[in-house]
Design brief:
The protein has 392 residues and is of the alpha/beta class. The chain has helices at residues 26-40, 54-62, 81-105, 119-126, 144-151, 165-172, 176-180, 220-232, 250-262, 279-284, 300-307, 319-324, 338-350, 352-369, 372-387; strands at residues 14-18, 44-49, 65-68, 109-113, 131-135, 159-162, 183-184, 206-211, 237-242, 269-273, 287-290, 312-315, 330-333.
């Protein structure tokens, strides 16, 4: 008998993924896709979050480990004397615990999701660990100093990835050389489990749909006001609002509810709160609205609407232009303009037979363009390349 030879154990590469929230919206869903890609590729993945939340169970279900760790997060609320004191405290706690986590994990790569937690980039570079920063933010309307401060940590990142050309262009206004190094990876967007055609006969009422955060920047009140205008013109429409406010912004939901009462839309605007999955609402909708006031770096909801074979009316600014580009059933309007939003809905309703057919064809194009498998493959290639393990 031959002598038994012990095969050396191949060490699995380790990735630490840092994410600012434990929620289930746009950037949360995209980081889940990145985590899934790395786990499926054989990586050991630890995900650090500042606090618990719905995302924790979803990450653990994929096969990654969750570590709660204090993390300084940038926000407009910190631009006050009290906020700056809070930021200093967060940074001190985050430095101590973050350093200990990096030392215990010895990651091959740190993946920082969003620009709002830049301290992870700093700590990773101090530990001489390659770090990727995934840019999901782009707000050209913000003051130049704010935009520059937000994108400054990208100078330290080993690799930067952005989800749109618009996001890269915003970075370029502060740091042109850094922007030239950013790799663009289109978001991988999961479509509905079963696509259905929009109804053939558009009998009243026409059902409009908004899905996303409830916030002033997302323009939910613009959609509500447009519903009022449409009804005043004799167009029988109703609006389903699917989403919730971010903690601390409950005042906006109060304002939204007062607006509904003031416009006498109590029977025509339905507030459903956060729903997961939201596909039944897309299935029941005739037209999807994405009425963002401020620049969006991309627009997952717009793509989800197209994947659902539903016409979408979106603000024609920022990454939403890219998200809706090439789809004949999509319409773009000036942001913050309820009149233009209402007119676009009227136009869709008036040409329903044609738009309905276009939406069905657009869904196929979106499925190929935003296939999650393409996104996962690209992200694994980038992360593995940073660690020098392309061959694995």
């Amino acid at each position: 008998m031959g002598e038994h030879v012990e095969r050396p154990t191949v060490r699995r590469p380790v990735a630490l993924v840092a994410h600012p929230f434990a929620d289930r919206y746009g950037s949360d869903r995209m980081v889940l896709e990145s985590i899934r890609a790395l786990v499926d590729a054989g990586w050991r993945v630890a995900v650090t979050l500042p606090e618990g939340g719905p995302l924790v169970a979803m990450v653990e279900e994929i096969g990654a480990r969750v570590v709660l760790c204090p993390t300084p997060r940038l926000s407009k609320a910190l631009l006050t004397p009290r906020g700056l004191v809070e930021l200093v405290g967060q940074t001190l706690r985050g430095t101590r615990d973050g350093w200990a986590l990096l030392r215990s994990l010895h990651p091959d790569v740190v993946y920082v999701n969003t620009l709002t937690i830049p301290w992870w980039i700093v700590l990773s570079r101090l530990r001489r660990v390659p770090v990727l920063c995934h840019v999901h933010e782009a707000e050209r309307s913000a003051p130049w100093l704010v935009r520059t401060a937000l994108t400054l940590p990208l100078l330290l990142a080993t690799v930067a990835v952005a989800n749109s050309r618009f996001a890269v262009a915003v970075v370029a206004e502060s740091f042109p050389r850094t922007a030239r190094r950013i790799r663009i990876v289109d978001n991988g967007v999961v479509g509905p489990p079963r696509r259905t055609r929009a109804r053939s006969a558009l009998t009243a009422p026409v059902t409009l749909l908004y899905v996303g955060r409830l916030s002033a920047r997302k323009g939910v009140d613009v959609a509500v006001t447009a519903v009022g205008l449409l009804r005043d013109r004799g167009v029988d429409v109703e609006l389903d609002v699917v989403g919730a406010v971010f903690p601390g912004y409950e005042w906006y939901q109060d304002e939204l509810e007062r607006l509904v009462v003031r416009l006498d839309l109590g029977e025509h605007v339905r507030m459903h709160g956060f729903q997961d999955p939201a596909w039944p609402f897309f299935d029941a909708a005739d037209v999807v609205l994405v009425p963002s006031r401020m620049d969006e770096p991309f627009g997952n909801t717009a793509v989800e609407a197209v994947l659902s074979a539903r016409p979408v009316v979106a603000s024609g600014s920022g990454g939403l232009v890219e998200a809706t580009s090439g789809y004949r059933s999509a319409r773009t309007v000036p942001p913050g303009d309820p009149g233009a939003l209402a007119e676009a809905v009227e136009e869709v309703v008036a040409s329903w037979s044609e738009v309905r057919a276009e939406a069905w064809e657009d869904a196929r194009r979106a499925e190929a363009r935003h296939a999650p498998e393409l996104y996962r493959t690209r992200m694994v290639e980038i992360v593995a390349g940073m660690a020098g393990i392309q061959g694995r």
